[in-house]
Structure formats: C-alpha cells, structure tokens
Design brief:
This protein has 862 residues and is α+β, with helices and mostly antiparallel strands. 29% of the residues lie in helices and 22% in strands. The chain has 23 helices and 31 strands. The N terminus is likely disordered. The structure holds FE2/S2 (inorganic) cluster (2 copies). The site of one FE2/S2 (inorganic) cluster has 13 residues, from loops.
Length: 862
C-alpha cells in the first residue's frame, strides 16, 4: 500500500516510532506542522533550494521538503533534536566560538549536513570537501568563512568552549548562539499557541489591473476554511507606509493593482496547507491594464503607474556647488560614462512570518513580528484595525535575516486583521514565492557621470544624473535615491559638484531599503570613474584614491565639512597598500574599491533613541532597546554595553525588544542599532547606577542625534553624524579571471565585538561578490512580473564559489559617537563591486559599466 492510499504514514523520528497524516505535502510539513519538531527550518519549501530543512534519513542528509512521506515510510529520520547530547554540545560550542552564525536560520540544516560528512570522513574531511557539500545550502549572512571554521573544528575533534563576550571591545559568542545553532531558539513560525489558525494570501495575477470583482465563494467552501477577508473588511485605514501612506493592505473591488505583490484576499483555515489551497480558489475579475515598467518612460507618461498617487515622480534630490561647465572645461582629463545597476533580492532565508494573538477579555492583541521596526508595525496594524496603538503589543522575534527587506510590513497587518476579526490566534507565513513578490528590493539605478581631474589626478568636478526605478509604492525609495545622491562623489574631496537623483514610480517590484541604501550604486559609478581617470593620468588605482581621499576639514559631497571621523578613509587605504602592491607586483590582476556609508538617518531627522535597564529579583538584568536583532548582533551589542557600564556578568543579561515600553525610534536601519542603541543602553545603565540599581525599576536612557541638517538648510550642513569607511582589494588570476582573494580593511570606529564584526564584513563581501558578478532580480518588461521566482535563480554564491577573504578592522573613533562606534553593517559591500570591476579591467582591458558584470570569457560566449 502506498503512502497516498493510507491515512497515516509510519516512520521513526529520533528513535521514536510515529504515525503522521498521509496528506502532508512532504516530510518537512509532517515534522513541523504535526510533530512540532522545529529545528528543520522552512526557507523555501517545496523547492529544496536552501538546505534549511536538512535532516538525516537512514543516516543520509536530505532536504525534508523534497522528501515525500512515501520515501520516509518505514525509515529512520533524525533531526537535530535527536543528536546525542555531547554531539549537540560540540556543534553548539564550535559555531558559537567561531562566530559561525548570524541570524542562525540556515545553521541547523548546515549542522545536519556537517554531521553526515563528519560521520563519513571524520578528521579527513577537508574544508574544500565540506564547502562542496554545502552546495545544497544557502547562507545569506556569513559568507561561509566562519561556518567552515566551525565545521573544521568539530571534524578535527577540537574541544572548543564558547564564552559570552565581556564589555565593549571584546570578542565572544553572540547572544543565544548555542540555541540558534541547534534550532532551539524559536523564530515566529516555530511558535505554537492553542487554537491557532493559519492565514494565506491571494495575490494579484496582474501588476496593473482594475479589480472588478473578487469571488470568494469556492474558497469559502474548501476544507478547513474558517473565514475569508477582503479590503471590505478593513474598518480602519486601507493604506500603510513608513514614510508615505500609499501602500494598500489589500486592493478592493473597484480599486486597481499596482505591482505583482498586491494582496486581494486573506484566507484563514485550520491548517496552513488548507489555507494555501483555498487561497488559490479565490477568483478575480480583472480589467488588465498596460503596466508602466520603463522608469524613463514613466516620467513622461501622462498615466499614473500607481493607484491613488498623483505623480510618477516619487522624489527629486539635488544639490550643486561651483560652476560645473567651467570646471569640466578646465579639467585636464574628463571621464563620461553611464552606469547601470540591477535590481537585487535580499534573500533572507526566513520568509516573513507573523503570529497575532488577541486577548478577547482585555480587548488587546499581542503580535509576534520579525519586522525591522516593532513600533512602526504596531502603529500601522492599529491604523488598519482602527484602534488605539496601545491596544496592540508587538514583540520582536529575532528574525532569520532582513538586510533592510523587512522594514515595510509584509503580512503583519493581514495576520493582525484576521486575528482581530476572529478573536482567535492567526499565524501567516509567506511562501518563498510570495516573499519574492511582496517585499521591496535593491533599486536598479541608471547613473550618467561626468568626472574631471587635473593633470596630477586631483578631482576637479563631479556631475551625476541618476534615475532609480522605485517600483510601485514609496517604501523608503525617495530616501534611497537621496542617499545615492549624497554619496555620489564617494569618499573624496571634490571642489565642484552637481547631482540630481530621481526616484520613479513604476509597476515593477517595489524597491526600498537594502544594506548600503543607495551608496552601493553611486559608488560603483564613482569608483569606476576614478579608475578610468587613473588610467588617463597614468597612475595606479591606489594612488588616485590617495590623492583625493577626504580629510578632516574638507568639504564632502553635499557640503558637509568632515570631522576627524573621516581619518578612517585614508587609514583604510594605507592599511591595504602592502597587499595591493604585493598582488600587483606578482602579476595578478588587482582591483581596489574605497567607499563610505553614513550611519543613522541624518538629513536633519531628529533621532531620539531610548532604552530601559531593569534589575529583576531573580538576579537577571533586562535590557530593553528599540532595535531588531536580525543576525547583525544588536542584542550582543546591548549586552556588551550593559556589561561595560554595570560591571555585571554577561550571562545575567536578558535582551528584549517589544512595545511594552514607549521606546519607539523607527526602523532598524543604517547601523542605527549598534551606534545609537549603544548610546541609549549606556545612558540607561548610568541612570541605574546613579540610583543604586534598585530591583523592579525601569531605568530609562536616551541617545540623541539632533544636530544634522537637511540639504540646503545651512551653508555648511552636517548631513550625517557618522560614516563607516572601507577599502577592499580583489586579487584575480589574469588569465582565468577567477578571484583568488579578497582583502577587506574596514574602519568601524570601534569594534564592539571584533569576532562578530569580522563576520559582518565576510557576509557583506559574499553579498558584494554576488552583486558584482551573478545576482539579478529582473522583471518582465511587458507584465511587470519578476522572472526569477526561486532562490536558485537569484544567483547567490554558494560556499564553494566564495574566494578566501582576509578582513582587517581599523578603529578611527567617530567624535561624539558612543565609544567611537561608526557601524559596520551598512558599508559592507560598498567597495566590492567596483573592486571586482577594476580587477576585471586589469585582467582583460575592458571597462564594465553594468551590473552584474561578466568575466570576458563568459561575455565572449554571449
Ligand atoms: S526548505 Fe527545504 S530546502 Fe529550503
Ligand atoms: S546565518 Fe546563515 S542565513 Fe543567516
């Protein structure tokens, strides 16, 4: 008898015989949804492309979402929960001690794969072998370097012991590292509450279409369906948005869709499978319209791309210093080039998940969110429900990666609405495809540059014209293009500058925040111009950067007079010089990138950050801050500041982010968590000390950055309070164009935890190499629909393709910043793509101006 014909299927899990319903779509669903075994994570089911759900079947590592119950029947299935205690301990200690995890979502699957290999090969398991076996896995955070360090240590039988870090400046394991490694620390989808229902969304078939009618009758009759909601059920605001309130939670009948991720209905059912199956039965009568997919054409088109807006121009950012035409005429050399960057997907491995749990007796609701700003989530959910924000508590569940892609709400309001209307707990988890369709991406930007220098290679003028495709809804697209404009001249002093940057609304996928926030695109262009000028002048890439690097007292970009913090730029250059010279003189093709990226919001925004420290009678100390832990280590930063300021043991600290205290400070973006969180926690600790650290008292601290200016507000504005700097070197085989090594020198101001800081850089370089060479998220020009709808098609580099990396941290403290911190997450990949472009040019003499770039051999084959 086959599994399909039976009502249950039997196998053993971790040595215990089980019988599960036969209708699960795969083994992963049976493990997670029926047996509540949650160490195998669901990053992409049923496609089998991320490796997060890896388990052992008869001792062989397999992805459970590609394993049918028929294949599992009668077999032995082992998950991390079933490993021997000492083996669990060895992996947990090794990953924690080596810094082998960030968000942790991919790690349990990787540990299972590692065990299978170590069982086979023991100490003979080589790093290269293991990297090849990790081909079935994706990690978006670590760049695999420290993952492989940890596996090597376990294979070699090294007894590592992880310890929490001490105060600021000490290396140590990240907060909750052991639990994350073993898959024991719950993400939102791992949380179960009694009576919980599941919601699934019905998305539009067309990026731009009038919605004539939404028919839910067939779906309503489907098995397990409890309720179906459309926009007609929203009693509060239809639209949300972090800056502009233009993003409809659902499109009503009579409304119009504006991108492929628009939601038309929420289906609530007893199980996730039932909800998703029923969501497919919703039928919609569309009046299909021509989508506007070319941003240049959208600027001229009299038709509005986006329903409910009044212009296809989302924003214009511009500034000018000096006489550009005269400066260009007087320049000894001028480079004129148009650069284009591609749209990129964040590919965080945990798809968006929300669990909303109403309390009918109190008329309140508790929402577990993996978003990047719990206060924004709370306020927006409340606005959709039409209730006071205080009736909603949002608790952050540290998420499985975000990189900016979880700033906007995804399904928080949908889960919240369904739970509120039903007065029952509702969980909503996006499928990978829904995640790809719904959340904002990195902007594709077209950048026309004219850059001049004198005969010695000193910059005279930069002119830049940028057009960014922001997709349908605003998100933070105007800020990204503003940041691209601000960073247009890179980390250099330029006497004359003229920049104009336009964000355009189209019906393409929405673009918003993504690590680097516009700085990556602008500096790919600017660094490309620097290398072209260096060739015209006859000096090296290093030398032209040295002659122009920004120094204290000089005017930068939009007019900011830089302080001593900018010493970091030159320091990075000087530190990388020996590597640059050595590689160049040994005949390798070398490329250098130098970059800067602001931390915080700046631009005149008054940033007021709060934190609370509270001594509890069980001897622990709660540290409550405003920020989302998404693998970048902000909880560990908060812990280390508390240890520094209070002189307490690290293992007594408990870090919490929820909305029970009014600490709201917007999104966890731009290294705000590390820099400003540290300032606020330190202040709270000082308040506690001044009052004798009494038990049960909320000691509130704050950190303010209220001294920055809007562009044009004053003559010499402080646009940003801090910047991080980095120089990266790409060393390439001139014949094969294979990257042999990346050297990354980063000025972080102060490395709060050097081990974790290094890991941030490694992960960034991995992401940057993908950005440079392989990643893309295009949309069809006729339909506006994204065309790469699986993780595999995104072009993310696998472990075996990642070249060796050497990371060096330098510390040029930022004046006025807590402990001198500048932040590391944002700047990470700013210099990577330009460095790859320069190395490719050194290898084959071709200048590249478009991402992703192709090595010559591949380009010739096209
Ligand atoms: S969830 Fe199974 S491989 Fe991604
Ligand atoms: S630690 Fe691997 S995806 Fe985050």
């Amino acid at each position: 008898m086959t599994a399909i014909e039976t009502t249950t299927v039997g196998f053993t899990v971790n040595g215990t015989p089980v019988a599960v319903r036969a209708d699960h779509p795969h083994l992963l669903a049976a493990l997670r949804e029926e047996l509540d075994i949650t160490s195998p994570k669901d990053g992409c089911s049923p496609s089998g492309q991320c490796g997060c759900c890896t388990v052992l079947v008869e001792g062989r590592a397999v992805v459970a979402c590609q394993t049918s119950l028929a294949k599992a029947e009668g077999r032995s299935v082992v998950t991390l929960e079933g490993f021997e205690d000492d083996e669990r301990q060895r992996f947990a200690e090794a990953f924690a001690a080596c810094g082998g995890l960030q968000c942790g979502f991919c790690i349990p699957g990787i540990v299972v794969r590692a065990k299978a290999q170590i069982d086979k090969k023991g100490a003979d398991l080589t790093r290269g072998d293991m990297a090849r076996h990790l081909g079935a896995h994706l990690c978006r955070c670590t760049g695999y370097v420290k993952v492989l360090d940890a596996i090597e240590a376990v294979a070699a039988g090294k007894e590592l012991e992880a310890s929490l870090p001490g105060g600021v400046g000490t290396s140590g394991a990240r907060y909750e590292a052991g639990e994350l490694t073993l898959g024991d620390r719950a993400y939102v989808d791992d949380i179960r509450v009694p009576g919980m229902l599941h919601a699934a969304l019905h998305l539009t078939d067309h990026a731009r279409a009038d919605i004539h009618r939404i028919d839910i009758e067939s779906a309503r009759k489907a098995p397990g369906v409890v309720a179906i909601y459309t926009a007609a059920d929203i009693s509060g605001e239809l639209r949300v948005g972090i800056i502009h309130t233009d993003w409809p939670i659902m499109i009503p009948a009579g409304g119009r869709t504006s991108y492929a991720g628009d939601v038309l209905a929420i289906v609530v059912a007893e199980t996730r499978q039932q909800a998703r199956a029923a969501a497919e039965l919703v039928t919609v009568d569309y009046g299909v319209l021509r989508p506007l997919t070319d941003p240049r054409e959208a600027l001229e088109d009299p038709e509005l791309a986006v329903w409910g807006t009044d212009s296809n121009t989302l924003s214009v950012s511009e500034y000018r210093r000096g006489e550009v035409d005269a400066a260009l005429s007087a320049s000894a050399h001028v480079v004129e080039e148009t650069f284009r960057t591609q749209r990129i997907e964040h590919a965080f491995l945990e798809p968006e998940a929300t669990l909303a749990v109403p309390d009918p007796a109190r008329g309140t609701m508790h929402v577990y969110s993996g978003g990047q700003g719990v206060w924004d989530d709370r306020n927006q959910i409340a606005s959709v429900l039409g209730v006071e924000p205080q009736r909603i508590t949002v608790e952050l569940v540290s998420n499985g990666g975000a990189f900016g892609g979880k700033e906007d709400m995804a399904n928080q309001a949908h889960a919240g609405l369904a739970a509120w209307l039903l007065q029952r707990p509702v969980k909503c988890v996006l499928s990978r495809e829904e995640s790809l369709r719904m959340h904002p991406k990195r902007h594709p930007i077209e950048m026309a540059y004219r850059v001049g220098c004198d005969a010695e290679g000193r910059l005279t003028v930069v002119q830049a014209r940028m057009i960014g495709d922001s997709g349908a809804y605003a998100s933070v697209g105007m800020k990204v293009l503003e940041r691209a404009a601000g960073h247009a001249s890179g980390p250099y002093h330029v006497p004359t500058i003229d920049v104009r940057s336009v964000a355009v609304r189209t019906n393409n996928p929405i673009c918003g925040a993504f690590r680097g926030f516009g700085a990556n695109q602008a500096q790919f262009a600017m660094e490309g111009c620097m290398d072209r000028l260096a060739e015209l002048v006859g000096i090296s890439g290093w030398e032209i950067r040295k002659r122009n690097v920004i120094r204290p007292g000089q005017v930068w970009g939009p007019g900011q007079v830089m302080d001593d913090g900018c010493l970091g730029a030159e320091r990075c250059l000087d530190e990388i010089r020996p590597d640059y010279d050595r590689a160049a003189s040994s005949g390798r093709a070398v490329g250098l990138g130098l970059g800067l990226k602001n931390s915080g919001l700046g631009n005149g925004f008054k940033e007021h950050i709060r934190a609370v420290v509270r001594f509890v009678d069980d001897g622990t100390v709660e540290v409550r801050h405003c920020w989302t832990e998404m693998g970048q280590g902000v909880h560990t930063v908060a812990l280390q500041v508390a240890v520094t300021e209070l002189g307490i043991e690290a293992d007594t600290v408990r870090v919490i982010t929820d909305t029970t205290r009014e600490l709201g400070a917007g999104q966890t973006t731009g290294s705000r968590g590390t820099l400003m969180g540290a300032g606020a926690v330190a202040d709270a600790c000082r308040a506690a000390k001044a009052d004798g650290c009494r038990v049960g008292v909320d000691y509130e601290g704050e950190y303010r950055v209220d001294w920055t200016h809007h562009l044009g507000e004053v003559e010499q504005p402080v646009i940003h309070s801090a910047f991080g700097y980095a120089a990266q070197l790409v060393v390439m085989d001139p014949e094969t164009q294979a990257i042999e090594e990346v050297v990354a020198v980063h000025d972080v101001g102060r490395a709060v935890n050097p081990l974790l800081c290094e890991g941030q850089v490694e992960g960034s370089v991995h992401m940057g190499l993908g950005y440079a060479l392989t990643e893309d998220f295009p949309a069809d020009a006729e339909t506006g629909q994204p065309t790469n709808m699986t993780l595999r098609s995104l072009g993310i580099l696998r472990a075996k393709d990642v070249p060796p990396m050497r990371v060096r941290l330098v510390e040029c403290p930022q004046p006025r910043s807590p402990y001198g911190i500048k932040g590391v997450g944002e700047i990470g990949l700013v210099p990577t793509a330009p460095a790859v472009a320069a190395a490719l040019h050194a290898a084959d003499g071709l200048w590249r101006s478009q991402l992703p770039m192709k090595p010559k051999r591949t380009a010739d084959q096209d």
